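Researcher: Structure prediction, please.
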Amino acid sequence: MSVETHFSILDYVFFAIVFVVSLGIGLVYALRLKKGQSLDEYLFGGRKLGVVPVSLSLIATTVTGSSTIGQSMEVYGFGLHNWMFVIASVLWGLLVHFVFLPVFYDLQLMSSFAYLEMRFDKSVKYIASILYVITGFFVIPLTLYVPALAFQEVTGINLYAISVVTGFLCIWYTAIGGYKTVVWTDVFQFILIITSAIVIMIVGLSSVGGFRKVWEALDRGKRLTFFKTDLSLEIRGSMWAYLFSSVFILCYQFSLSQSGIQRYLSLPTLTKAKKALWLQIIFSIFILLIQFVIGSIIYTTYESCDPLTAGIVKKIDQIFPLFVQEKASAFTGFNGIFIAGVFAAGLSTTSTLLNTMSGTIYVDFLSSRMKNVSERTTGRVMKILVAIVGVGGIALMFLIERLGTIFSITVQCFTISTVGVFGLFSSGMIFPKINCRGAKCGVIVSMAVIGVLIIGGLNKKPDTPLPLRTDGCNFMNSSSLHNASRVSLTKEDSNEDVPWIFRINFQFFCIIGLIINLLVGYTVSVFTGGNTDVDDKLLITFLRKNPPQEILLSTK
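Model: Predicted structure follows.
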C-alpha cells in the first residue's frame, strides 16, 4: 500500500478559499470600525446579533479539527462507544438551559468569571481566569496542529511550517475585526466543515459498497460496542464515563466557558439564547453522527490491512488523511475539500480562543488598571493581547506530538479546566453554604489530584486498540505479516507494573475531580462558618425566592 502525494491546482484553490474569505471578513469589519470600537463591541458585537449566525458560530467552535479526526479514529481503533456523546449532548443542553444559562444571562457580565468575584471574592475569579487561559494555551496548539498534520499527509509540506503560517493569519484577522469577525468567519467555516464531512462520507460509502458493508465490517471487527457497563475505572469508553464525566465537560467547554457565554450574551433575549443553545446541540449531534460514519467507513476500507500495524503511518490519527489521499481519484479537488474542512474547523476554534482569552486577560486583569483610557487605546491593547496569546499558542504546538492521541489530548485538556472552573460555578450557584475558603480549597485539592493522575498516567502504556488485521496486505511477506498481525499485549507491554490509581482511564477524571472539588469545598465551608448571606441572583432559579423575569435588552 503506497500512496503518492498529489494535490492539484483545484485542491489548492479550495484550501486557499478558507484563508482568503476569512481574511476578507476580518478586513471588512476592520474598515467598518475605522474610529475604533468599544470593549462591548469588540467582545459581544454590541449584543445585537441574530440567533442563526450565533448558533452556527457556536457549532463551528464546538466542532474542532481534533474532533473531526479524533472522533473518527476513536471508532476505528476502539469501536462505536463514543456514540454516547449523543446522549451526553442532550443532557448538556438540559443542564445549561434550566440551570446555568438563566443565571449568566440575568447578570449580563462582561466576563463569566466576574460571577466568581461576586459570589466569592476576587482571588477565586483570578484562579478561574488563569485556569481558562492556561487551558486555552494547550488547546490552541492542538487546533493548529491537526489541520497541519492532515495537510502534510496530502502535500508533503512540513506541518510546523504550515502551522506557523496558519497561526499568524488567524491572529491577524481575529485581531483586526473583533467578535463580529469571529462570528461571521465561523459561519463561513461551518459551511465548509459540514460540506467537506458530507462529501467525504458519500465518497467513502460509495467506495466500500454502502451502509450494509460497513455494518458487517464493524461486526466482524468487534467495533459494535454501544454500551460498556463494566464499573471498572480502567475501561475506555464506559457509559458511566460519558454520563457522569463527558456531560460536564461538554456543558462547560461548549456553553459555560467564556467563549460560550460570550455568544449567548450577544443575543438580545434569554429566549433567543436558549434557541441558539439547542440549535448548537442539534447540529453538533448531526456532525458527530457523520464523524462516526466516516470512522466506520475508514475501518471498513482498511479492515484487512491496517496502515498503522503495517507501518505505513506512525500514528493512528494519520489514517484519516491517508484515506482521503487514497480516495482523491474520486474527483479533482476531493483532497482540497477535505483539507478546507479540517482547516475551517481548526481556524474557527482558534479564532474564538484568541478573542475570548484576550478578552478574559483584559477584563479580569487589566481593565481595573486602565479605567480612564480611550476606546481607541482599549482596541489597541486587545489587538496586542490577541497577538501575544496567538504567538504563545504557536510556540507550544511543538509539544503536541509527544502527548498521545488527539482524542485523549483533547479530553485531558478539557478535563483540567472543567474540574476547576465548572466546579467553582457549580459550588457558587447550587450550594449556597459554600464560602470563599471552601471554594478555593475545593478547586486547589481537586486540581492537584487530577494533576497527579494525569502525570502518573504518563507512564501507562497506551490503551490497546481492538483487533487490527494485516492479512490483506499484499506487499508484506509471511514473516512480517505474522509479526504485524499480533493484537495481544506481551508481558512487557502490559500495565501490571503501574499502580492501579494511575491506570484509571482519562475519561473518568472529570467526575472524580468534580466530586473532590464539591466535597472538599462543602466540608471546609462547614468548618469555617459556612455562608448565610448570598445574593439571590447568584443562585440557580430553583433556589431563588424571587425568580427573575426575562431581560429584554434594547436593540436600538
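Model: The CA atoms of residues 217 and 294 lie 13 Å apart.
Researcher: Thanks, that helps.
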